[in-house]
Amino acid sequence: MDTDLRKYLQQFQNQLSWKEKIKIAYEIVLAIDVIHIENAIHRDLHSGNILYSKLNQKWVISDLGFCGPADKSTESIYGNLPYIAPEVISGNSGKYVTKKSDIYSAAMLMWEISSGQPPFNDFENDYDLALKIINGMRPKVIAGTPAL
């Protein structure tokens, strides 16, 4: 693989059209769908785990180390805090992390693709960030983002 999404966005954000950004997001969603069709959950989606292959001209999901069956209980929290679903952080998902947690992570990736910045990158304290995410804080839509 040639680069990860975080580095790619840092390098090319100002050159990407909305069409290109949507294509990246679409490829990520398709890759998540493949994981979910297999009744698995990634559990650690973030821009460092999204890789681009120039050879195949595709975005793929990497680091499947925490990926596991959707019906397997876990008491552990994995991932990069800004991308972890609030119910997982708070423990309200019970012993089961669901596919919905990957969808939340995908939404954070979409925000990062639109803004060029990792979500919540202005927070230095993980405890404060975790509480704010649990209490409903979400990144604001970036000005210029096309409406549906």
UniProtKB/TrEMBL annotation:
The protein's name: Kinase-like domain-containing protein
Domain Protein kinase, chain residue ranges per copy: 1-148
InterPro entries on file: Kinase-like_dom_sf, Prot_kinase_dom, Ser_Thr_protein_kinase
UniProt-recorded Gene Ontology molecular function terms: ATP binding; protein kinase activity
GO cellular component: cytoplasm
Gene Ontology process terms (BP): signal transduction
Pfam families: Pkinase (PF00069)
Superkingdom of the organism of origin: Eukaryota
PANTHER family: SERINE-THREONINE PROTEIN KINASE (PTHR23257), SERINE_THREONINE-PROTEIN KINASE WNK4 (PTHR23257:SF958)
